[in-house]
Every structure is written in structure tokens, then in C-alpha cells.
Amino acid sequence: MTSLLRCWTCSGRTASSRPLLQTCSSKNTYLIPPRSHSLIGKALEGGQLHFDRHFSQTSRAESTIGQTIRGCRKTIKREVKAPALEGCPQKKGVCSKLYTVKPRKPNSAVRKVAKVKLANGKTVVAYIQGEGHNLQEHSVVLIRGGRTQDLIGLKYRIIRGALDFAGVVGRRTSRSKYGGGAFCFSFQASPFFTRSDSFLLCRPAKLEVKKPKDQA
After folding, report:
1. Which domain of life is it from (predicted)?
2. Which of 170, 84, 81, 185 is nearest to 130 (CA)?
3. Quick count: other Cβ atoms within 10 Å of Cβ 187?
4. Which of 76-85, 90-99, 163-172, 190-199 has the least mean pLDDT?
5. What domains are there in the chain, each with its CATH number?
6. Each residue of 127-152: pLDDT tens digit?
7. What is the enclosing helix (H) or strand (E) of 65?
8. In terms of pLDDT, which residue wins out, 4 or 170?
9. How many other CB atoms are found less than 10 A from the CB of residue 25?
10. How many Cα atoms within 13 Å fall on the side-chain side of residue 52?
11. Apex CA 73: angle with CA 72 and CA 77, to 5°?
12. Long-range contacts: 46-50, Cβ < 8 Å, 24+?
């Protein structure tokens, strides 16, 4: 097959009498003979055929001068979803204003949000998640990234259970997200837990194992 495709225009003619587009520049260059599409397809699949770029000084991976002038090769910039954090997972800030906003359609509610001034000097609006909160003006909070689907422009959330922001009391599910801590269903019935005075949190009590009288 290679003998059929190898420079069929060079046989019996000199280089000066050949057209410029059909000139072979190397031994591995194969020009396309007419009416041989089936042979070309088989040669392309087998890796025996490739086309040489006679007028180009750049490789196939590089952009040409015309492509560079037109601006075809542009680097794709990743969208930063939380620009105020500056690449950090969390930022500390101080609450300057607490207010409520309404979500967009079709939802209907009253969402609690806070305007927070971060340690880097930027001011953002963060969402207060969970039922109830103890935030006031000048409360120190911890901000993380995370948008709210039905609130326009909110890209941050306040972490519950961190700094001055208390967790949700009595939370049974997703306690780690709301800073609820451990939860006891019955403080009096279970001998392994004790009740705290300030919050409805549980901590395991010391369990005394009684040895049998024979081993004592």
C-alpha cells in the first residue's frame, strides 16, 4: 500500500516540472493520488499516511500567526465562586447589620442574612442558616463559601457553632452542619449521659464496671 501512495507525482518527472503543492519534502511524506479514497482511509487507520504542511513553520500543536492575531487561542479562566475568601476555606469577620430578604419565585419565605466585614477589609452578605440565632451587631463570626439557591447574590454562609454564633439547639439530623453537638432523646432514662446546665448537649459519663464477687 505504501508503494501505491508514495509520491506518485515524482515518477518520471524532475523537481522543476512538478507543481509546488505536490513536491515531497521527506521520504515519509505521501501525497494523495486521485480516486483512491479507500486506500487513503486504510492508510490513515493504519498510521501509514500523514500530510506535510509545506508553507507552515510551526508545528500542529502551536498556533499560527493568523490565529494569534485573531485571538483564537485564549486561556480558560476558572470562575471563582467565593472571591472574598481569597482562596481560604474560611474567613473571620464582624457583623455590621442583620436583616431579612425574600427569596425569588416560586419560593416564599423570610430569609435571615447578615452583612459581615471580613478581616481582609471586604464586606459581604452571608446567609444565616438554621432555625433561630443569637447574632447581634459586632458579633464575631466565621464565613465559608456556599451559595443560596433562592437568594440572589449570596455566595457565603455563616458557620454555626463557631466563635460567637451558637449552634441549633435540639438539632437531630445534620448536626455537624448546624453546630448542634450530640443529642440525647431522654436524659433521665439513659444512665450513660448527663445533662449540661447551659445547653442541651450530652457528654458520655464515666461508666463504673462492677466486678463479680468471686473475682473481687
Report:
1. Eukaryota
2. 170
3. 12
4. 190-199
5. 2-70 (no CATH), 88-170 (2.40.50.140)
6. 998 888 888 898 899 999 998 888 98
7. helix 65-70
8. 170
9. 9
10. 15
11. 120
12. 46/1, 48/1, 48/2, 48/5, 49/5
